[in-house]
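Researcher: Re-running this chain for the archive, since the previous output was lost when a drive failed. Same request as before.
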Amino acid sequence: MVRVSKHGDRVRFEVEGWDKLWALKSHLEIPSAHIRSARIDPEPARGWWHGLKLPGTSIPGLLTAGTFYQSDGAVFYDVHDPERTVVLELDHEDYRRLVIEVEDPPAVVAMLSSLITGS
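Model: Regenerated structure tokens:
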């Protein structure tokens, strides 16, 4: 699971627990201006193929964590439960998108959407 928090004009994505080991990453920090959109979407986390895994962990039906390369670029995953997945589309970052599990998807999407729109 990932904890999302705002710090000035940046958003911090803190990978929690053992997921740090599986994802080989403890956190990401991204300028809010680089977030194009945020949505609740379980579909990208379902299935068994998420792209070329480098580095990361994929246990179909249980865990997807780490960096996966897809046709349009790198995607960061940290998901156990697809029903709690938030997808962020990014610009000007190493990752094209983040596919992350959060505790409260509607609250995270609302917070990120307010940063995107500036309200």
